[in-house]
From TrEMBL:
Residues 409-464 form a coiled coil. The keyword Coiled coil applies. It comes from the Bacteria. The chain crosses the membrane at residues 192-214, 221-247, 259-277, 289-308, 314-334, 341-364, 370-391. Keywords: Coiled coil, Membrane, Transmembrane, Transmembrane helix. Residues 500-543 form the Transposase zinc-ribbon domain. Residues 47-178, 191-393 form the 7TM-DISM receptor extracellular domain. Signal peptide: none annotated. This is Transposase.
Length: 626
């Protein structure tokens, strides 16, 4: 791989040498003399006879007139930077013919971006007009070549004068070469051969990185492919190759296409650099700057397409995004991202090439073949270095991954050893713990036997206690029954037996269901506890019955403990209390007291009970329930 790229580098040097071949120039001569000893002579506009027409109205007859022809002079101080896109330039070229020459000759304009060149070729009867320029269809050219050529007649002796009317919307580099057909063919074949290598390398590297993208799906490779294709088509636009092969019948596409692909170069360069250098995480402020630059470039491109075509030309500010890319790559590299090392070198070379190309295009520095092709050379070297950088990135990431994997393996080995050691210790502890547990289990069995013996003794004692409790409850019940039966209890004594509603309801529940439950709906004998206290639920039909149901106390509005006492006063032989005294004692209204007592008496009369007992009042249908 290293040998391959070294050969490419040598080939690039060869390209420079071939492109820098220039013929010897005559010193300040007004006339090209046909001489078989000199195959090529090249003159820039400062060595040519020309006139700048600010009116843009002059025609050939005006130029031939004595008033204007004297103004066609050599201006050695004139440079491309002074070329005005608003004016028309008339160039005069005189050729001294040599009919004995064994070669055929032609004139050639190097700058293929000139919009309009009208060549006036001398004939026996005057001049023949030939339209050239990148605004004319490619098929109109005499030679199918990216530059503009005009054949030179050399059948008779004498001097022929050629006139050229030049008009361009961008600064043109008016440079005319006078060369033989042999020299032109040799030069053209070598030039197209080198172009084939240049564009072929772009296509091959684009295909290579496209396949890598399809394999690993990393978007940076896709951006790099688009970047390379944009570089290739832009270079083809600059060289005139795109017009020759891609849109030969649409000359109006030349200027917009050049602007479009220069914009795409900047866009994909920024996107590729952002992802390659991982600026979003490593240099966030520069990532935001890239977004701003891309937005500004987009606005300028849109304005150039819609309103100002000059914005589509290469401008001095186009160097800014490449400078920021170079700066950010250096910054990231210094911060320890070693992947960026070849990227820095690649963009340093590209930055230099772009800077030289812009300076030559804007005529800030004088033209030379090497400087003219500086962007091509920079793109070629940058393309190779970026391809190496992508490979170097994979290599570095692989080495980092291998080191991380090795550390992981070592850590895994250490963890395995530690795990074995811990397992051995745990096994020993488990064994010791198991022995301790066996001993404790034995003790627990002994303690359990003792507990069982104690439990039997406790059960025996509980049986005795249950018997005593049953006797005690019976005595309490008999005592309670005796006390209630004693019809001479005061309110204070009654309150000790029934202090609140719960005690009254509990008493009702006990008396009502002491002989068993019987459902009023289906007469089923089994029940279960309801969700409400002092209620029973039939196990068959689900009917719910309260403790007060079927008694005088069901549905009353008085507090049940006070209703109990009022019922008791009906049978009490204690000192009779008046209604006023009962009202003050129970804190009830006289009407409520009177109504409830009347209700109790009426119930007893309806049952035919003349000497009622307490149960007769509590259970108004006790004889039915039993």
């Amino acid at each position: 791989m290293v040998k391959f790229y070294s050969r490419i580098f040598v080939l690039a040097l060869l390209i420079i040498q071939v492109l820098t071949i220039e013929g010897k120039c005559q010193n300040s001569s007004y006339t090209f003399q046909i001489n078989d000893q000199l195959d090529e002579r090249i003159y820039a506009i400062d060595r040519l006879t020309f006139y700048e027409d600010a009116s843009n109205e002059l025609e050939l007859d005006d130029i031939l007139s004595s008033s204007i022809s004297g103004k066609l002079k050599i201006n050695s101080d004139f440079t491309k930077h002074q070329f005005s896109t608003e004016n028309t330039y008339w160039v005069k070229v005189a050729i001294q013919k040599t009919p004995t020459s064994n070669k055929q000759w032609l004139l050639e304009f190097y700058d293929q971006t000139i919009d309009q060149i009208t060549a006036y070729i001398p004939t026996e009867g005057g001049f023949r007009e030939l339209k050239l320029g990148d605004q004319a269809p490619f098929s109109d050219r005499v030679f199918s070549h990216k530059n503009f050529q005009i054949p030179v007649a050399n059948q008779t002796a004498g001097t022929d004068t050629y006139y050229f009317k030049i008009k361009s919307s961008q600064k043109a580099d008016v440079r005319i070469a006078f060369r033989s057909y042999n020299r032109f063919i040799y030069y053209a074949l070598n030039e197209y051969f080198l172009y084939g290598i240049f564009y072929g390398m772009i296509l091959i590297i684009s295909l290579y990185n496209g396949l890598i993208y399809l394999a690993i799906k990393e978007v940076k490779y896709l951006y790099y492919v688009f970047y390379l294709l944009s570089v290739g088509i832009f270079a083809a636009c600059v060289d005139g190759i795109a017009f020759q092969y891609l849109w030969p019948n649409h000359p109006g596409w030349n200027q917009p296409a050049s602007g479009l692909f220069s914009y795409l170069i900047v866009m994909f360069a920024l996107l590729f650099s952002t992802h390659f250098l991982n600026l979003k995480r490593r240099f966030p402020s520069m990532h935001r700057s890239f977004q701003v630059i891309l937005l500004v470039k987009t606005i300028l491109f849109a304005a150039g397409i819609a309103f100002f075509p000059k914005l589509l030309e290469i401008q001095i500010y186009d160097i800014v995004p490449f400078f920021l890319i170079l700066f950010s790559s250096v910054f990231v590299w210094i911060k320890g991202y070693s992947v960026a090392r070849l990227f820095v070198v690649a963009y340093a070379i590209l930055f230099l090439g772009v800077a030289l190309k812009i300076l030559v295009h804007t005529a800030i520095i004088p033209h030379s073949t090497v400087l003219y092709y500086s962007l091509h050379i920079a793109f070629l070297i940058e393309m190779l270095l970026l391809t190496l950088a992508l490979g170097d990135r994979v290599k570095i990431l692989k080495e980092n991954r291998d080191r991380a994997l090795l550390r992981s393996l070592r850590q895994a080995e250490a963890n395995a050893k530690l795990k074995d050691k811990v397992n051995q210790e745990l096994e020993m502890r488990v064994k010791e713990r198991t022995q301790e547990l066996d001993k404790k289990n034995q003790l627990l069995l002994e303690y359990n036997q003792q507990i069982l013996e104690k439990d039997e003794e406790i059960k025996r004692m509980n049986a005795l206690l249950d018997k005593d409790i049953w006797k005690l409850k019976s005595q309490i019940k008999e005592n309670l029954q005796a006390r209630i039966t004693n019809k001479r209890m005061s309110y204070a004594d009654f309150q000790k037996i029934f202090p609140d509603s719960s005690s009254c309801l509990r008493y009702l529940e006990q008396v009502k269901w002491e002989n068993g439950f019987s459902c009023k709906a289906c007469e089923h004998k089994k029940s279960s506890k309801s969700s409400k206290i002092f209620h029973r639920r039939c196990s068959r039909c689900g009917h719910i019955e309260s403790a007060t149901a079927g008694t005088i106390f069901h549905g009353i509005r008085l507090p049940i403990e006070k209703a109990f006492y009022l019922s008791y006063t009906v049978i009490s032989e204690h000192d009779k209390l008046t209604l006023d005294e009962l009202s003050k004692l129970l804190d009830l209204r006289i009407n409520a007291i009177s109504s409830f007592r009347v209700k109790v008496k009426l119930q007893l009369e309806m049952k035919g009970i003349n000497h009622p007992e307490w149960e007769d009042i509590v259970l108004e249908r006790s004889h039915e329930l039993n």
